[in-house]
Amino acid sequence: MAKKSTKPNPNRNITRAVVYGDDGKPKSSGWMVRFNRRGKSYQSFFGDSKHGGEKKALTAARLDRDGKEAKYKPLSVAERYSKPSARNTSGTVGVRWTNRVIKKGRKKYEFTFAIATWSPAPGERRTATFSADKYGKEQAWKLASDARRKGLLEMKRNEKARLSA
Question: Cβ neighbours of residue 62 under 8 Å, at least 6 residues apart?
């Protein structure tokens, strides 16, 4: 596995854009700045001819990107994992139902669990599992939701400690 570079990419969120005409020849070229923040998309085009060449257009694109990224901050880890996605059907972020089937000989045993998931620190993942057979469906869901809530508090404490260090 390749090592992850610790140096930030100077061209993050910047791509080369070449527009071709009907004859297949390049019509215009430049650099495109694109990124999303809090549900909104931001994009700008920096043409080579307008900015006096490819290098100057790239410099202008980097300046624009840096200014917009400073103005439009990304979601914190806690904010990102507390908002429901469009695919969420339960209404509770980070809590889901799952079924496990265990086969022993000719018999099948099916178990239903409520699972809470959270990430207390970058690169770490925690889960808590509660059996619907043991606690009942409502209680298992409540216990999983409480475990998730406690995990998010731990996540917020870790993020504050990491930012203040």
Answer: 10, 11, 14
Helix H or strand E encompassing 35: strand 26-37
Closest CA to 36 of 67, 61, 17, 13: 13
- Would 5 be classed as within a structural domain? no
Residues 160 and 94 grouped into a single domain: yes
* Residues 120 and 160 reside in one and the same domain: yes
Amino acid at 151: G
In angstroms, the Cα distances linking 94 to 31, 125, 131, 151, 158 are 38, 12, 16, 10, 18
Q: What is the pTM of this model?
A: 0.52
At 82-126, the pLDDT tens digits run 677 777 777 788 899 999 999 999 999 999 999 999 887 778 889
Residues of the domain holding 43:
14-74
For residue 97, give the nearest of 131, 126, 125 by alpha carbon. Answer: 131
- Angle ∠(121,149,95) on CA atoms, nearest 5: 90
- The domain tally of the chain equals 2
Question: Which residues are CB-contacts of 132 (< 8 A; sequence separation ≥ 6)?
Answer: 97, 111, 112, 113, 114, 140
